[in-house]
Specification:
This protein is of the alpha+beta class. Helix content is 35%, strand content 23%. It is flat. 9% of the residues are buried.
Length: 102
């Protein structure tokens, strides 16, 4: 029974891992990684609320000195960032990241 958002996401995760498991005979690491990253993105998209200008994406984070991070497989950002042509990868400023507050 689903009582909380956590229960819903856990149910989606289990279902997704079960779907992925039938394809684990594929020995291509990037494909396996894409499946798990896709599952993570789908779960994150279902967990964020509408109308908050949040986006789940992959890409690179640039700091105020324009230094770039390594590629981030899955992140939640504010706004759209800049889409890298012919890909589903974005560049975002560190100011567009959603950070936990204490």
């Amino acid at each position: 029974m689903i009582n909380t958002i956590k229960d819903l996401l856990e149910s989606l995760r289990i279902q997704g891992v079960n779907e992925i498991s039938s394809f684990l005979d594929i020995k291509h690491g990037p494909t396996i990684g894409d499946m798990y990253e896709g599952l993570t993105k789908e779960m994150m998209n279902k967990a964020i609320f509408k109308n908050l200008d949040l986006k789940v994406c992959s890409g690179f984070i640039f700091n105020e000195e324009t230094e770039s991070s390594k590629q981030i497989d899955c992140m939640i950002v504010v706004g759209d960032g800049i889409k890298i042509p012919f890909s589903e990868i974005y560049t975002v400023s560190y100011t567009h990241l959603t950070l936990p507050t204490t």
